[in-house]
């Protein structure tokens, strides 16, 4: 049986996919270029003097002048932008004004916490969401569907920081099964993974609730298509129709949400990282803002924007693999 996304496996399809990838890679490069220009403009071309902002209002004029020279603020902005981009292309994001260390090294160290945490939370969200979404779609309009959607609504409504504190109270304080906070480093892999379990669960709950609702809605819409009725008429069971035909065709909105969720989990876990005292990327950006370290903010935001654009590119490739019509 052929569903609506089946296409011949010939050279034309392969050529379409190659053109699609080239097109998306071009768009990725242009997006990164525009994003870098916007980030540079926001940080360095806004009204006011970045050096005075970083040093504070009580700084001496000669100190401000020395910092301006160190940051290259005495040069025209096109030269500063070209120098900054040249450094970015070679992996040099500058030096932190506060910590006197390379920003690239700081970001790499923090990514060793934020990236595994985001991946753990995303995998956990998928593991929770897919069974709930499939169950609700298979029983749409019945009691099971109503109960499942009610549970997901509660998951969306609960603040993740409150849920994080509840997890600490139950599993760290009362049961003493998992650490309440801190990160021992990847020199102790098991201890590091245990330290990330509670933060990952706290981050995954609302994301799983959102994903389950999106999956259920997409499946319900797909189950009303003509080719689904044809599959049922040919004698396929409800489970076969749901998993072999409807699920694949319902994945495009789910992939969109997954891409957005990964970007959020990577950059938006500031509150959770503070609750669990994790030295992650979000916490680093928060500290850099409070310490007026614009060099760190500039470099970290660029890395996060690049990560979001890359995830979007991967999601687009997923679209093309699921629905070959999009390759054109």
TrEMBL record:
Residues 111-315 form the ABC transmembrane type-1 domain. It comes from the Bacteria. PANTHER family: DIPEPTIDE TRANSPORT SYSTEM PERMEASE PROTEIN DPPB-RELATED (PTHR43163). It is a multi-pass membrane protein. This is Peptide/nickel transport system permease protein. It comes from Paracoccus lutimaris. Gene3D superfamilies: MetI-like. GO terms for molecular function: dipeptide transmembrane transporter activity. Keywords: Cell membrane, Membrane, Transmembrane, Transmembrane helix, Transport.
